[in-house]
Amino acid sequence: MIYGVAPLFCRPWTLNGIQPRLIESHYEHNYGSAVRRLNAVTAELATLDIASVAPQLLGRLKREQASLLNSTLLHELYFASLGGDGRSVPAPLSAALARDFGSVDRWRQEFMALAESLGGESGWIVLCYVPRDGRLINQCAVEYAQGISGAVPILALDMYEHAYTIEFGANQTAYIAAFMRNILWDAVEARLASALNVAPPLKLEQPEFGDLPSIAPEEVRAMMTSGKRVQLIDTRPRHYTTKANEIASGAVWRDPERISEWITTLSKDEPVVTFCVYGFHIGCQSAIALREAGYDARYMRGGHAAWKAIDGPVDLLKQQA
Ligand SMILES: [Fe+2]
């Protein structure tokens, strides 16, 4: 692929407190150089004989390519972030900022403080939309890297020295303030509107258990911490527990093969949560059997493994006879 330069999005002469020569230099030299080097590295990669190339060379070129592609994309977003009055945040975007940061002012404070936190180092401050979470987040990306996977950047502030020293010297604070005064909020809002159409990553689906009530491990932990009564039943298969040495604190292990023997020992006055190793079949089937018998039962999503992943407390599992 050959990457083409995108035309300059903002009109430099309209900016408030940022001179056209700074934008021109930034666009022509720094952005242009990133695109040219991206094409050079991409062309070099295309000529490689993968079967015989030194792995170190391939690795270096691929890292360089990713860094230059990110530089290209972020610069295009940076120039497209400028050209407004910095004040008029459209209603849908201000509502989203208020939802995810508390208020537009709090978002602004965090965004600017993050830029100041670089303290002379280079990096990018980026406002992103994360489709998986349906949320906006500010991030600091150094070395044109550390992009949040799957996130859609909608506003970018370039904190590399080349973006401000010609005009602001070492005064990053003045540069950050000037950037904020020139944000083109309508364009940011348009990018958010299109980012909202990005589907989140596929989630685990178990259609056969689609209607079965479940509960997240974090909720189970919160119930137990708050002293809420819950009967937590570990129904990992016997062959698995003979190799395991831990059990979620507060849970009792019951053999899923012998559910008819222990089901009557449970109380129908308190909810039951069952779980297996990973949250697939056994825990779900146990919950189904319990519900059919009239218990308020749910299965814990992700099972014992998810409990470990949230660092839920565990006890030593005594081997069953
Ligand atoms: Fe730059």
* Ligand list: fe (ii) ion
Which structural class best describes the helix and strand composition?
A: alpha/beta
Radius of gyration: 27 Å
Element-level helix/strand string: HHHHEEEHHHEHEHEEHEHEHE
The span between the termini is 64 Å
Coarse morphology: elongated
Strand content range: 5-15%
Main beta-sheet strand count, sense and barrel state: 5 strands, parallel
> What is the topology, as strand order, of the major beta sheet?
4-9-8-5-7
Share of residues in helices:
40-55%
Number of helices: 12
Give me the count of strands: 10
Q: Overall pLDDT, averaged?
A: 93
Descriptive overview:
The protein is of the alpha/beta class and about 325 residues long. Helix content is about 45%, strand content about 15%. The chain has 12 helices and 10 strands. It has helices at about 20-45, 55-80, 90-100, 105-115, 165-170, 170-180, 185-195, 215-225, 240, 260, 280-290, 305-310; strands spanning about 125-130, 135-140, 150-160, 215, 230-235, 245-250, 250-255, 270-275, 295-300, 315. The strands form 3 sheets. Strands 4-9-8-5-7 form a 5-stranded parallel sheet. The chain has a 3-stranded antiparallel sheet with strand order 2-1-3. It has a two-stranded antiparallel sheet with strand order 6-10. α1 packs antiparallel against α2. The protein is elongated and about 80 Å long. The model has no long low-confidence stretch (mean pLDDT about 95). The structure holds fe (ii) ion. Fe (ii) ion binds near residues 30 and 158. Fe (ii) ion binds near residues 158 and 163.
